[in-house]
């Protein structure tokens, strides 16, 4: 188990939570300034300096119950209120979305690009709040400082730790079911096509080398997929093309989301000043 996994788990789940809340606020026609205040309050709490300092200390993952409690409190950091059923559905969406992203990461290291996609989108919610943007940028700096020098093996351990955390979660999500990326038993359908990881050749060739390291034989085989080479590596800089789309906002195209706020949450958001 990696002691460097918790920040990535927290930030990515938090990003997914904000995506869903933003979609629901828009669906309920909450005025823009009031919706922004709700998101600003949550994001400001999520990236609180003292909290992130504790978050980035090497430590074991929280238990599922403890982590759920953290998001219960985070979701209610503003005047918005969710009933228990809404919070349950929200948390299900968060966890299954990030589980899917981890499963689809071409390389273990790409979980960092997924995290950066979430941070990039979060900054889009707070464009008019430079103080909060600074908080998010400071978290980005911490991520690059801590994770930028990790080896492929250390990232593999992080990915394995995340998958162990998610392994018993097979919650069906309507969006995934409609897109046919999830089966009726809650398990995901993994593709056998698309770009291979950056720096990796498209499968289909077996090379045989002698004891001097010289290639002496080459054989081709049918791999059964439709793979292509990655055209470039995603950027790990503060600003840049991540290339990888995992972790971007899948609700931005006005898709229906199976989580519903209580009436009190809508009324509370409407009263935000």
Plain-language structure description:
It is a single chain. The protein has one domain (6-183, 236-270). Mean pLDDT is 90; it is low at 254-273. The termini are far apart. Helix 1 packs antiparallel against helix 2, helix 1 runs parallel beside helix 6 (110-125) and helix 6 (110-125) packs antiparallel against helix 7 (130-147). The protein is built from ten helices and four strands. 51% of the residues lie in helices and 6% in strands. The longest helix is centred in the N-terminal third of the chain and has 22 residues, at 6-27. With 273 residues, it is mainly α. The radius of gyration is 20 Å and the shape is globular. Strand 2 and strand 3 (215-220) form a beta hairpin. It has helices at 6-27, 32-46, 49-55, 64-75, 84-104, 110-125, 130-147, 152-166, 174-178, 263-270; strands at residues 193-195, 205-209, 215-220, 226-228. The strands form two sheets. It has a two-stranded parallel ribbon with strand order 1-4. The chain has a two-stranded antiparallel ribbon with strand order 2-3.
Going across the major beta sheet, what is the strand order? 1-4
- How many β-strand runs? 4
Given as residue ranges, the uncertain stretches (5+ residues, pLDDT < 50) are 254-273
Q: Count the helices. How many?
A: 10
Strand content: 5-15%
From the helix content, strand content and strand pairing, which structural class follows?
mainly alpha
CA-atom Rg in angstroms:
20 Å
Organism: Rattus norvegicus
Pfam families: Oscp1
Protein name: RCG30854
